[in-house]
Design a protein that fits this description.
Helices cover 52% and strands 4% of the residues. With 246 residues, the protein is mainly alpha-helical.
Length: 246
């Protein structure tokens, strides 16, 4: 015979913990506000689907019950400890969650797309648009070289690159769209990722920079050499022709 439970909310069938961690708080699944999220909560243990709602609606489980109280059917609980049940659900959730690339990853999107959609880059553009050309160049130069140094250091200690991080060269180009070293590097990365049109737009923009841009001839030559080494003689010739006509 099943022992009668104390009439508190945490002993109600509708009570659900607000997290997979040990907690005295929970939510009431009889609350219609949670109806759209029941599948995610019960089948997938996805608390993120309605995190703000959970935080707004959660309460301590030992409070007095309401008229909807329905005693939990403990006799149907598997022969597992609560810790084992939670562990199994967490493991299930992890198994169902496939690693995803960040929504605004440079791996998946071009620089031009990120410049329009990624708030990090948009913020850099807004902030540095107010600065002088010299200040933008100095900030871009610092970001560019700091990124290279950071990458070398992380490789030395075996720390993997976080896909969520935008390359420093991308940030440098957002700070100063006329910073030639960043144009060369970002263009090369675009090309390596198969975004040839985007890469060529960046490479060709080098030919539109002022003639007194530092090391411009060397940087354009490097872009032409990159395309030639990639076996793309057509685009290499196009870039060289554009440079010679300036």
């Amino acid at each position: 015979m099943t022992e009668k439970l104390e009439r508190i909310c945490s002993n109600c069938n509708s009570f659900f913990p607000d997290t997979f961690e040990w907690t005295e708080y929970g939510i009431c699944l009889a609350d219609e506000a949670f109806d759209p999220y029941l599948d995610d909560l019960l089948e997938h243990g996805n608390f993120e689907c309605c995190g703000e709602l959970i935080r707004a609606k959660r309460f301590v489980g030992d409070r007095e019950v309401c008229s909807l109280y329905e005693e939990a059917e403990l006799s149907e609980i598997p022969d597992e400890s609560l810790e084992e049940i939670i562990g199994r659900l967490v493991e299930k959730k992890a198994g169902e969650s496939k690693p995803k690339s960040p929504e605004n990853s440079f791996e998946d999107h071009s620089f031009a797309w990120l410049l329009e959609h990624d708030e990090r880059l948009r913020s850099l553009c807004r902030d540095y648009r107010k600065q002088t050309a010299e200040e933008r160049r100095m900030a871009a130069d610092f970001e560019y070289h700091a990124a290279l140094a950071g990458r070398v250091f992380n490789q030395a200690i075996g720390k993997p690159q976080d896909a969520a991080d935008l390359p420093g060269e991308v940030a440098a180009l957002a700070i100063d769209p006329a910073f030639a070293p960043a144009i060369l590097t970002v263009g090369s990365l675009e090309y390596i990722r198969g975004r040839v049109d985007e890469a060529m737009q960046l490479f060709l923009s080098l030919t539109e920079l002022p003639a007194d841009t530092e090391d411009l001839d060397v940087i354009i030559d490097k872009a032409c050499a990159f395309l030639s080494e990639a076996g793309d003689s057509g685009n290499a010739g196009k870039l060289c022709a554009a440079a010679s006509s300036v």
